[in-house]
Every structure is written in C-alpha cells, then in structure tokens.
Amino acid sequence: MPILQNILFLLLPSLLTLFFYFYLFLWKRSKPTPNLPPGRRCQLPFFGETFAYLKSHSATTTGHFMQHQIARYGKIYRSNLFGDPTIVSADAGLNRFILQNEGRLFECSYPKSIGGILGKWSMLVLVGEMHQSMRMIALNFMSNARLRSILLPEIERHTLLAISSWKEDVSFSAQDEAKKFTFNLMAKNIMSMEPGEMETEKLRKEYITFMKGVVSAPLNLPGTPYSKALKSRSNILRVIEKKMGERSHERNEEKEEEDDLLGWALKQSSLSKEQILDLLLSLLFAGHETSSMALALTIFFLEGCPKAVQQLREEHQIIARRKMERGETGLDWEDYKQMEFSQCVINETLRLGNVVRFVHRKAIQDVRYGGYDIPCGWKVLPVFAAVHLDSDLYNEPQQFNPWRWQRCSSGAASNNNFMPYGGGPRLCAGSELAKLEIAIFLHHLVIKFRWELTEPDCAYAFPFVEFPKGLPIKVHAIA
Ligand code: HEM
Ligand SMILES: *[C@@H]1O[C@H](CO)[C@@H](O)[C@H](O)[C@H]1NC(C)=O
C-alpha cells in the first residue's frame, strides 16, 4: 500500500512537531517561565543603568533616558538600578496597585544609605507594626484640630517673619528663603526651637550637610558626603538629645509642658530614646525638604504665568478685604477654605514639578500584573513623575495650567492618576500641613509683592529637585 505509506511519511514531520509542542505545553505548565517586562539584557554588573537613570534633567520632564526606555519598551520595563534587578513603572495603574498592596505584595525598600543616615527607626524605612505606630504619632501630631488651632497661626507667623526680611529691588535666593521658612517651622513644631536663635541656625547649617549625604553614595570614607552626613547626623542628634534632657528637667520643676512633637513623643512611654531621636529626625527631613521645594517651585511657575498670579491675587485680596472689614487679624480655617484657586495652583505645581519623583519598593511575593511577572525580591520603582507628565493622561503636560484642576473644566485631570503624596498605607502624613504652608505663604506673597527672576534658573532633578542657582528673585511692593 504505497499510498498509505506515502501519506504517513508526509504526516510524520507534522506529527513530530505536534508532539513536541504538546510536550512543551506540559513542561511549561509544570514550570512556567516568568514573563518579565521587556528591558535591556546586557548591563554593567552592579551599577547597571543607575547612572543613566539618575543623570540630572529638567524637573518638568522625565529625562531623556527614561523617555527613551518608555518609547522602546513601554510604560513597564525592567532594568538594573541601585545594584538590584528592578521593574520601573511609568504606568498609573501599576503604581496604584503597588502602593495599595503595601505589606501584602510589596514593601518599602529604601537604599542602605537612607537607613544609615535617617536611622533604623526612621518612619521612612520601618515596615509592619513598628511603622504603623510611628505613623500614628505623626498623624496625631498633624491632626486637623492641631492644623487649625496651632499650626495655621504658627505658619502665618513664620511667613510674616520671612517676608518682612525681604528688601525691595535686591536679588535674593527664593529657594533659600523657602528652605529657611519650612525648616524654622518644623524646628519650632518638633522641639520648640525659635527662628533666628543661634542654636536653630547652627542646626540648620548642620542639616544642609546632612541632606547632601542622604542622596549620595553610601561610602563611609573620610571626606565623602556620606561620612560628613553621618557626622552631621550625630551632631543633630546631640542637639535633640540636649532638648530631651532639658525637658525631663523641666518636668521635674513642674514647668509648663511644651506642646510640640518632642513633648508628645516623650509621653509615649513605649518609645525608647533612640526611637524618639530617629522619629524626630525623619520628620524634620520629610517635612522640610519637600515642602520647601514645593514652595520654591510655586514661586517659579507663577513667575512664568502672570494670569495665574492675577487670579490668585484677586482670591487673596477678597479674603484680606473681608478680614479688614470685620476687624479681624490673623488668618483662620474659614479663610483657608476660601483659597480654592490656590489649591489648583498647588496641585499643578506638584504635577509639573514632581518634588518626590518616585519611591522605592520591592516585591515580597511573586506578583502578576497586566500579563507581566514581577519575581519576589525584585525592586519596584513606581515613578509618579512619569505619570504626571504623561500626555495620554494630561493635555499639554508641559504647560503650567492651574485651571485644569478647576471643577467642571474640560480636560480636568483625573485625580486617580495624581499621586504627589504617594498612596496606600504610606500616604504622606504631612500633605495637609504642606498644602496649608504653601497656601498661607502665597496669601502674603501675592497681596504684598510682585516678583521676577533676576537670572534665568530652572528646576533640575538630580533626582532630588533643586534650582541650581537657588532661584534668584527680586520683589516689588504693591502699592
Ligand atoms: C509638598 C510637600 C510634600 C510632598 C510632595 C510629600 C511627599 C511624600 C511622599 C511621596 C511620601 C511617600 C513615601 C513612600 O511611600 O515611600 C511621603 C511620606 C511622608 N511624608 Fe511627605 N511630602 C510632603 C510634605 C510633608 C510634610 C510637610 C511632612 C510633615 C512632617 C511630611 C511627612 C511625611 C511622613 C512622616 C511620611 C512617611 C509616611 C509613612 O511612611 O507612613 N511630608 N511624603
Ligand atoms: C488636588 O489633588 C488632590 C489629590 O492629591 C485632590 O484630592 C484634590 O481634589 C485636588 N484639588 C483640586 C482643587 O483639584
């Protein structure tokens, strides 16, 4: 039967292929190969793409390197950063998923340098229950009741103090002024240190060195920024410790207790001295650098958008006029609630300026998302900046347009994708304080002054955001 033989002969290769695929199918089912997001395979050992990723770029962009990676691989790609295999996410959905699954699928995982400088009890590096209890102290300290009654008047006092030192027609660094303002405010609220006092100024100088180390390579060799920062850390801790010592003294002498964070923390008898020190230091860090940059960025973006300044000024003049008519002095919560356009300006500043550009996480289980596998132990970086500057989500994302936040305006940004303060169980504990600081500062700024840049400057991401020239401005009083 030659015909049958021929047919079998012809079918044989197809049958073999079929068997092969069937076998492959069974094998795959028993041992699936992970479907990793795409990314470059060949990379330098250890450093990988870290340098390219961290290369400084304009703060209002995601940077050439990341733009290139997204164009090539999509919004979720794999890389090698900070010495670990990493999934980088510029995808709004994945970013939300990561933050919401903190403690279940993902966990906060900052580089060693941050833990070394901020301390092992810092809220930024702690996970689990200990994080939760430290977080509660911070949240209680910045509760709504305290924001209204204590922090708001304090912010206004510090604003007026800062603004009253400005001379007309003399160029000064708005960034330095913003840093001084938020530092003094935090130093006052954390441990009742008064602005301008020598001790406060000394602490502030120390803190600048400290900051440089947080963002540097963790090389503890003589002369490196990291080792200088470790020295600053112990100098700062010594100041806080001295304050603690004074407190226990005062308590013995039955003096009036200070209503500051140190006072609160001391009352929490469960905390050790070491824990209190790290808590205070990390709050000083979290609350100072971020909100001062946000304020400097607001001043910068507004300078380039006279129409927004005009509308802001009208909003604040109405508030000021009403206060005058009622014979009231000092802003209160009701006034703050009237600052609606100011909130649009703040949101737009954070969207375009991206003070905190990304956060560090790692997968603590094998995770599947959108068809991709993220293996347990891999680092994951949700990059908020990339979402906030995504033209699929925001019309003309490079434009400073506070009106996009107005209710009912067309092209309004969906809040779902806007995460300047992170999200989930680690959502910024100080976001309400930060907004209050900026709004109150803006109130006095726009009703008293016009301002202009005296030299071109622009915010850069190093990746921490900074104005290289310090944002030099000069002001003119409004008649
Ligand atoms: C505009 C200014 C601010 C921005 C953009 C900002 C942003 C953020 C972000 C993105 C996180 C999350 C970090 C992570 O998930 O790993 C965070 C956490 C935190 N922020 Fe802010 N922040 C600002 C101002 C403040 C202020 C004024 C304070 C006051 C002390 C503060 C205190 C904290 C604390 C304590 C945490 C840790 C929360 C936790 O781990 O549970 N922040 N912030
Ligand atoms: C600003 O953004 C926050 C989310 O962080 C949102 O809840 C709020 O409604 C926004 N404000 C305005 C005026 O759109």
Judging by the overall fold, what is the CATH architecture? Orthogonal Bundle
Using DSSP, what is the number of strands?
A: 13
Low-confidence segments, given as residue ranges, are none
Summarize the biggest pleated sheet.
5 strands, mixed
Q: What ligands does this structure carry? A: protoporphyrin IX containing FE, 2-acetamido-2-deoxy-beta-D-glucopyranose
Beta content comes to: 5-15%
The Cα radius of gyration reads: 27 Å
Global outline: globular
CATH-assigned homologous superfamily: Cytochrome P450
Side-by-side strand order of the widest sheet? 2-3-9-6-4
Domain module tally: 1
| CATH uppermost class | Mainly Alpha
Binding site for heme: 428
Family: Belongs to the cytochrome P450 family.
Transmembrane segments: 6-26
Keywords: Heme, Iron, Membrane, Metal-binding, Oxidoreductase, Transmembrane, Transmembrane helix
Walkthrough of the structure:
Strand 7 and strand 8 form a beta hairpin. This protein is α+β, with helices and mostly antiparallel strands. The longest helix has 31 residues, at 273-303. The chain is built from 17 helices and 13 strands. The strands form four sheets. The chain has a five-stranded mixed β-sheet with strand order 2-3-9-6-4. 39% of the residues are buried. Helix 8 (174-191) runs antiparallel to helix 12 (273-303). 54% of the residues lie in helices and 10% in strands. The protein has helices at residues 2-30, 50-54, 64-73, 92-100, 112-118, 128-141, 144-164, 174-191, 198-214, 225-252, 261-267, 273-303, 306-325, 333-337, 340-353, 384-388, 431-448, and strands at 57-58, 76-81, 84-89, 106-108, 172-173, 361-363, 367-369, 372-374, 379-382, 449-453, 460-461, 465-466, 472-477. The radius of gyration is 27 Å and the shape is globular. The chain has a single domain, classed as Cytochrome p450, CATH 1.10.630. The mean pLDDT is 88. The protein binds protoporphyrin IX containing FE (HEM) and 2-acetamido-2-deoxy-beta-D-glucopyranose (NAG). Protoporphyrin IX containing FE is lined by residues 108, 123-124, 135, 138, 283, 286-287, 290-291, 294, 350, 355-356, 359, 420-422, 426, 428-430, 433-434. It is a single-pass membrane protein. Its main location: membrane. It is found in: Membrane.
